[in-house]
Amino acid sequence: xxNRYGNPAALGFGAFAxxxxxxxxIDAGWFGVTMAGSxxxxxxxIFCTVALFIAGIFEFLRARTWYAxxxxxxxxxxxxxxxxxxxxxxxxxxxxxxxxxxxxxxxLAFYLWIAVLKAxxxxxVVLLSLGTWLVLLGNAVAGFTGAPIYMHIAGYIGLITALxxxxxxxxxxxxxxxxxxxxxxxxTNFQN
Length: 192
Known about the structure:
The chain has helices at 8-27, 39-61, 65-88, 95-118, 123-145, 148-178. By secondary structure, the chain is mainly α. It is globular and about 50 Å long. The mean pLDDT is 82.
């Protein structure tokens, strides 16, 4: 692709940040779980799903596999998380099933984190990937043990991860607009 197209990483990390922030506030216990069933919450998750998927497709076209997988995988996660709740208000009857579901996502996030350690991605992206893995792992542990403290810890890690994702998105936009590195730590792969 050429420079006539915008940098999809800015959109992808921005959408990811919003979705993780919304989930993090609920998991951390700032709001009750009934908020997760609200129309506002699902509107945000649907926006995140669409924006992440678009960013993932454009990253795929740019032959940037890590970004494409990260964005499209988490578009699928947000969709899978939001859609059944929005349609039915249902939650899984067996919390262990949910724990295994979160563990699967944690494994994906883990190997994405391992992969990004070798890439030219900046510190913010490496920490964001690590935070994503820890959030998903925390959700899985909470499901297996039934101890809500793990969900609250995962929520706070999620909020930190969201801030890193906002920073990565801002860095992609600000650095591109200024034509130089203004916000460091976001890596050189964000440049068109």
